[in-house]
Amino acid sequence: MKKIGIDARLYFQTGVGTYLKNLIYFLEKKDLKNKLIYIYLLPEDYKILTFKNKNILKRKVYERWHTIGEQIGFAVKLYQDNLDLMHFTYFSYPIFYFRKFVATVHDVTPLLFKTGKASTKNKFIYDLKYLFFKIILWCQVNRAMKIITPTVTVKNQLVNIYGKKISGKTLSIYEGVNYQILQSTENKNLSNKFKNFFIYVGNFYPHKNVEKLIEAFSKVKTQNKLLLIGPNDYFSVRILHYINIMKWTGKINLVSNCSLSDLNFFYKKAKALIHPSLSEGFGLPLIEAAYFGCPIIASDIKVFKELMGDNYLSFDPNNVEDMSEKIKTFINKKPKFDYKDILSKYSFKTMADETMKIYGELI
């Protein structure tokens, strides 16, 4: 039996968690024959999750990402399991692990923007953590047997940063629509509370550019509301404070911690999804919106152009006036977009199939 490990410590986090859920879901449906897949989980996730495929085994680890424990304790655990191949699914891994591994690099946003919880810390502490992050990512990119990126855009960014030597081992594999939202049913009860609205879906990290979206939407004369759908955390509190100070609560509202059924409703009933991000690795909300037939108004960044072509209304994310004008244009002209090919082009099942091929080639 060949043993393959998958780092699933972020299984219940946003973004990477969706990637992990779908990768494991579709791997579980395969006949794994002479392969054992070890899924590394934090204790609280280990208790909850069960896998029906007898060739998929849970492994409990206590070390969280971006910690000293990860660098030592997690590496020791992996060595003890004597894996033929390890798949690190996030840009955090134990640099003392020198055996064969694959790495998924979802984006280069942390290299371009101060993002995430680390940016709320003391500047000296943040700068120190940022230096270690850059060293770890350099090691991961250079030591990996193969690097998986969700788009060609991210692959090109990595090659620009780390050199052409990594180009041949870097593969772009598109992601898709979360199987869980495909299986969800619309929460129709929300129709009594929400009518005539645009949506933003995602977290509220600085690079998501939500404050500029709020400013742009406030300039649009419309009876429609803007619903900001995302997690309840430090960054959402900051956004809510900004909305309150500017006295826009009647027009712009935060909707926290939606269920999949809620999201199903919002995508189906929204006038459009507005996504003002300055940097992304893929853009799951765009693909989900397209699946539900929800029109898209979004940044003209390269990754969105790669995913959607000209099949959405684009704006300069650094220009509040342009963003505002495009929202007005949408309201006045009601452009139509055809998203019928989205599921065939972007699929987590295909992603899992391609990832499995990589495992097979390397072991």
Using the 3D structure, state the CATH architecture of the largest domain: 3-Layer(aba) Sandwich
What is the level 1 CATH name of the largest domain? Answer: Alpha Beta
Give the number of domains: 2
> If you compute it from the alpha carbons, what radius of gyration comes out, rounded to the nearest whole angstrom?
21 Å
Kindly report the average pLDDT value.
Answer: 94
Low-confidence stretches: none
Q: Beta fraction of the residues? A: 15-25%
Biggest sheet: strands side by side, in what order? 3-2-1-4-5-6-7
CATH homology superfamily of the largest domain: Glycogen Phosphorylase B
Largest sheet: 7 strands, parallel
Taking the alpha carbons of the first and last residues, their distance comes to 11 Å
Quick one: how many beta strands? 13
Observed structural traits:
15 helices, seven-stranded parallel β-sheet, three-stranded parallel β-sheet, alpha/beta, 363 residues, Rossmann fold, single chain, 16% strand
Characterise this structure.
The chain is an alpha/beta fold. It has two domains: 2-176 and 347-362, Rossmann fold (3-Layer(aba) Sandwich); 179-344, Glycogen Phosphorylase B (Rossmann fold, 3-Layer(aba) Sandwich), CATH 3.40.50.2000. Helix content is 42%, strand content 16%. The chain has 15 helices and 13 strands. The strands form three sheets. The chain has a seven-stranded parallel β-sheet with strand order 3-2-1-4-5-6-7, sandwiched between helices. Strands 8-9-10 form a three-stranded parallel β-sheet, with helices on both faces. Helix 9 links the parallel strand 9 (225-230) and strand 10 (252-256). The longest helix has 21 residues, at 123-143. 39% of the residues are buried.
